[in-house]
Amino acid sequence: MTDELLSPAQRITRRELVRRSLLGGAAVGLAPSLLAALEGSAAAATTAASGTIDFFSWQGYDLLDEPVMKAFRKKNGITIHSTYVNTHNDITAKFTAGGGKGIYNLSTYEAGYGPFYVGLGIPQPLDMSKIPNFKNAHPIFRTGAIASKWWHFKGHQWAVPFTWGIQGINYQSDKIKAPTSYQDLLKPALKKKFGVTDDPVAAIVIGAHATGVFRADSLYTKAQLSKIIAFWKTLKANARLIVPSYGNMADLFASGEIVAATPGWAAVNSFAASKGDKAVKHVAPKEGSATFCDAFFIPSGSKNTDVVYAYINEAFTLEAQAQEAENLVQAAVCPGAVKLMDKATRALYPYAQITQILTKTAPLEVIPNNVPKGYATFADWNKAWEQFKA
What we know:
Blueprint: H1 22-25, H2 32-41, E1 51-57, H3 67-76, E2 78-84, H4 88-94, E3 106-110, H5 114-120, H6 139-142, H7 144-150, E4 152-153, E5 156-157, E6 160-167, E7 169-172, E8 194-197, H8 200-211, H9 222-238, E9 241-243, H10 246-254, E10 260-262, H11 267-273, E11 280-283, E12 290-297, H12 305-315, H13 318-328, E13 331-332, H14 343-346, H15 354-361, H16 378-389
Parallel strand pairs: 1-2, 1-3, 8-9, 8-10
Antiparallel strand pairs: 3-12, 4-5, 6-12, 6-13, 7-10, 7-11
């Protein structure tokens, strides 16, 4: 396994989560119903293949630590070689100018990148007859307006969403009260005690919520983009530092250098717990939050795709989905998996409100490319964010 893109200090260590320390250190084990299901999981797969998967995406999304997936790999002689990324831009670059085509046969994209990636020719259409377990996913991920916007369009299914989550503020619960607003970070008591995370897409979305200009279609004028960046400049003036990655955020919490950070991510709770700090929590402020939904895709020019299809299909079994939710500290896409989760993992996300969240409360954001004249493009977002950091 390779990890050539990240230094140890920057690595987003999703695989290194302390699985038993969610929700402020509460003991978390596999639910009895899930344990009972493990033995038969691999045998229940409708497709199987052996071979090598060359994976390029976030650490943890290769599902190396889930017992169901481990058993499936062992049973079918599957080997995974993984290269991990630090930002989504690494994925874009690898499959456009970085020579990734024909080398890697499995990757992921966040929902908003779907149309952008298809326009660049990055993913290949999926043969959904080889992923029958995708039927287990909530309807919002399979059919209708959301699905046809991000994963199934132009007559093809380009990717299959397998995990989602919400991004707001992480905070040290034994030192400060849960922030209810992003404006709370401007209080004198928090001066030089919190961090601003280097995550431009989440930051632009959060900034849009905080300044009252949020649009689900991400069409912001350049004046509105300037207003969003001005909000972040105000936060930066009160902040201790720019946090380079979510893994680094956990280090800063554990060392006591910060007591809050935004954009946040629930997984940081567990990253920090693995370093002995079990008081880090995550909250979605009242203005709104960024929401992500990541999907598996098979890059154009991929080789040995039968083993990839088999692996993706197994990832949509209910047992695997429940374990993914625990290991990634994120939300499952399959409703049937919720009953297999332990209580603490179930409590992390409001599964009964999936449709409300993803369509109204915190809709999945668009990556703004080919926008009408007068609106900021994704390149404008990145340029503005780089200038902000400088």
